[in-house]
């Protein structure tokens, strides 16, 4: 009898230690030691450097990560995020893992460092950096024994969206262009993006808006994407429908970013317009819209020594795109 009482006391102590450890688990994971291990695991698998200042986990409250930084000097990119948080805690996520709630990303700011190199030099540098990143990823995969998952990808195993629902909400975003002399120019600000995912219906809906760096222009967009049920990697089967409205957008800083990479001309100009897209490449994609630009001045890039200047130009577009053909049904230039 005494031995039975002793055994029950030991079991009671073990259960107490177990539940106490379970209760304290979020705090244990959020320690500096655990945060360091998380950073090491992420940095071993990506090009560039990932860091954050604070990680908070809770069974009842939401999860939170603050002052996140991602830097990739080879690609000329630095991203800082003030705060990433979730509306659901660990207990809620564990009890209903198909509903991830809302993920909030506050004040993401991307700095894109412009290069004086030619597009071919930039492409070569990016290729070398990409190779280093690939080697880094492959080494991490070998360490974690993920060769079998790699084999499954090569054999074309179908990829399906998880049957989850949730919302991604991004607020206060911005993109800056940084010149070689370290002068920072805002390209866009006040970025707001809302993405709603309904995995059971393979449906993704989105709303996006942002201001131009000079606060004079604005872009708004909305749409939805229906992913194929059998394999979401079949891009030709994706059904999309979206609209984009552009109001008084100065293209100078945008061209300064695209120029070194793509070879497009640099310059300036104010753009207004409306574009819509619908359909899929498996059948056809319909593209309709109108664009108007004024005070356009271009130089360099593909134009080489030419420096065209247009006071006003308007384009009306009606086209269809399939996997093999592009049909221009209507194109009016005025």
Concise structural overview:
The chain is of the alpha+beta class. It contains 6 helices and 14 strands. Strands 1, 2, 3, 4, 5, 6, 7, 8, 9, 10, 11, 12, 13 and 14 form a 14-stranded mixed beta sheet that branches.
Features:
334 residues; alpha+beta; 14-stranded mixed beta sheet; 27% helix
Describe the protein.
- The chain has 334 residues and is α+β, with helices and mostly antiparallel strands.
- It is built from 6 helices and 14 strands.
- Strands 1, 2, 3, 4, 5, 6, 7, 8, 9, 10, 11, 12, 13 and 14 form a 14-stranded mixed beta sheet that branches.
- A hairpin with a 5-residue loop joins strand 8 and strand 9.
- Residues 118-123 and 144-155 have low confidence and may be disordered.
The helix count comes to 6
State the order of secondary-structure elements, H for helix, E for strand. Answer: HHEEEEHEHHEEEEEHEEEE
Largest sheet: 14 strands, mixed
First-residue to last-residue Cα separation: 99 Å
Q: Flag low-confidence runs.
A: 118-123, 144-155
Share of β-strand residues: 35-45%
The SS-based structural class is alpha+beta
Mean pLDDT, rounded to whole units? 79
Tell me the total number of β-strands: 14
Given the C-alpha coordinates, what overall shape results? globular
Please identify the oligomeric state: single chain
Helix content: 25-40%
List the helices and strands and how they pair.
Layout lengths: L1 H28 L2 H12 L5 E3 L2 E3 L7 E9 L4 E10 L3 H6 L3 E15 L5 H26 L2 H8 L10 E14 L5 E15 L4 E10 L5 E9 L12 E12 L1 H11 L3 E14 L5 E15 L9 E13 L4 E8 L1
Parallel strand pairs: 5-6
Antiparallel strand pairs: 1-3, 2-3, 3-4, 4-5, 6-7, 7-8, 8-9, 9-10, 10-11, 11-12, 12-13, 13-14
């Amino acid at each position: 009898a005494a031995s039975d009482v002793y055994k029950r006391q030991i079991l009671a102590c073990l259960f107490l230690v177990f539940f106490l450890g379970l209760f304290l688990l979020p705090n244990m994971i959020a320690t500096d030691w655990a945060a360091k291990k998380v950073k090491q695991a992420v940095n071993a698998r990506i090009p560039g450097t990932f860091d954050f200042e604070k990680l908070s986990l809770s069974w009842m409250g939401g999860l939170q990560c603050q002052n996140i930084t991602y830097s990739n000097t080879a690609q000329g990119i630095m991203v800082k995020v003030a705060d990433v948080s979730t509306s659901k805690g660990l207990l809620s996520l564990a009890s209903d893992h198909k509903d991830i709630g809302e993920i909030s990303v506050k004040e993401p700011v991307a700095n894109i460092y412009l290069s004086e190199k030619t597009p071919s030099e930039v492409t070569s540098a990016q290729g070398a950096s990409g190779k280093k990143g690939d080697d880094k990823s492959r080494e991490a995969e070998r360490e974690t024994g993920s060769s079998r998952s790699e084999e499954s990808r090569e054999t074309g195993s179908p990829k399906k969206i998880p049957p989850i629902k949730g919302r991604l909400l991004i607020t206060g975003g911005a993109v800056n262009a940084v010149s070689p002399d370290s002068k920072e120019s805002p390209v866009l600000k006040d970025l707001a993006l809302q993405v709603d995912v309904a995995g059971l219906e393979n449906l993704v809906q989105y709303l996006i808006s942002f201001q131009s760096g000079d606060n004079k222009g604005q872009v708004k967009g909305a749409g939805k994407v229906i992913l194929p049920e059998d394999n979401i990697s079949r891009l030709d089967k994706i059904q999309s429908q979206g609209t984009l409205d552009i109001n008084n957008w100065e293209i100078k800083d945008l061209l300064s970013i695209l120029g070194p990479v793509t070879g497009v001309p640099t310059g300036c100009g104010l753009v207004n317009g409306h574009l819509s897209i619908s359909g899929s490449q498996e059948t056809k994609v319909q593209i309709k819209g109108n664009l108007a630009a004024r005070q356009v001045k271009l130089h360099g890039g593909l134009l080489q020594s030419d420096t065209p200047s247009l006071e006003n130009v308007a384009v009306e577009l009606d086209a269809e795109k399939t996997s093999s053909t592009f049909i221009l049904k209507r194109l009016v230039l005025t």
